[in-house]
Amino acid sequence: MSLSQRLATWARQKSPWVTIFNSGACNACDIEIIACLTPRFDVERFGILAKGSPRHADLLIVTGPVTRKQAPRLRRIWEQMPEPKYVIAMGACGSRGGVFQGLYHVLNSVEDVVPVDVYVAGCPPRPDEIINAVVETLRIAGEDLKHGGREWRTKKPAGPVPPTRPAPAEQKAEGGT
Ligand code: SF4
User: Fold this and answer.
1) In the predicted model, is pLDDT for residue 1 greater than 80?
2) pTM of this prediction?
3) Looking at the 3D structure of the chain, how many domains does it have?
């Protein structure tokens, strides 16, 4: 890791910029994120800032299961983020599809599209759990800094984006015609 990358990671730990992507959530997870921004939880007091553009973000929070249509968009947003970047998969849906698991139009998890660093359990997770996930991500970023990169931990590389439609054999297995 170069000196400038080390400096950027140190600065990010002090004030991570976060962007949020709804990949097919029921919106309850998103409402909990909004609660984090309100005066009751007020994440800005910790230096956590919500950003509209992935090009300015250090951390991507993905809510919901990933629908096949959203998968290429999620990948594109992740690719637009500068390195070092981190991903939080939020809620039961982000982890394993949650209540949408097994439907023909959703993938198994966020991990199928982008590499995930931290999972947050719950349906939806509470704002304090979301804050805890951001803190955990910053701890991992600190460990990466100490190890000179993220190679010290096994992290699934981003594979090809799954197809927009399931394969015909998959559709039959799921009861399609
Ligand atoms: S985890 Fe629960 S609250 Fe969040 S998107 Fe899925 S169903 Fe909605």
Assistant:
1) no
2) 0.85
3) 1
